[in-house]
Write a sequence for this structure.
């Protein structure tokens, strides 16, 4: 349990470092000239955040509680980091970044539900 909480803490610190670093969007190169690569990055970061927040909530015994923790924790991070970016001189708050964050979170949580149900069904139908 301590290890999963440590991973959640380390990931949160890394995420905050990435999203609040004083680097302007014009300073980050776009791979293959793809103009909206930052949206893909936001999706990926919050996909990982969603997975780690559910898996890191091992201090909660029920799956529903872990999911609720993952939703609340990740949404607070997404909204909080976007709001905090509005105060940084080289960053700006973006509604589309927030949408990409939420989309990554939704896909991660859907994957958690799918895996949980598959595991539950496989144990239920064992002969």
């Amino acid at each position: 349990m301590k290890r999963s909480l440590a991973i959640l803490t380390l990931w949160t610190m890394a995420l905050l470092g990435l999203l609040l670093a004083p680097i302007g969007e014009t300073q980050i190169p776009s791979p293959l000239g793809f103009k909206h690569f930052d949206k893909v990055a936001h999706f990926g970061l919050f996909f990982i955040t969603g997975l780690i927040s559910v898996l890191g909530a091992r201090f909660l015994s029920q799956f529903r509680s872990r999911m609720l923790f993952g939703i609340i924790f990740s949404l607070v991070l997404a909204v909080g980091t976007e709001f905090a970016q509005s105060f940084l001189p080289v960053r700006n708050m973006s509604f589309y970044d927030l949408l990409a964050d939420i989309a990554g979170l939704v896909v991660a949580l859907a994957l958690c539900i799918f895996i949980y149900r598959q595991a539950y069904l496989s144990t239920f139908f064992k002969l």
The radius of gyration is 17 Å.
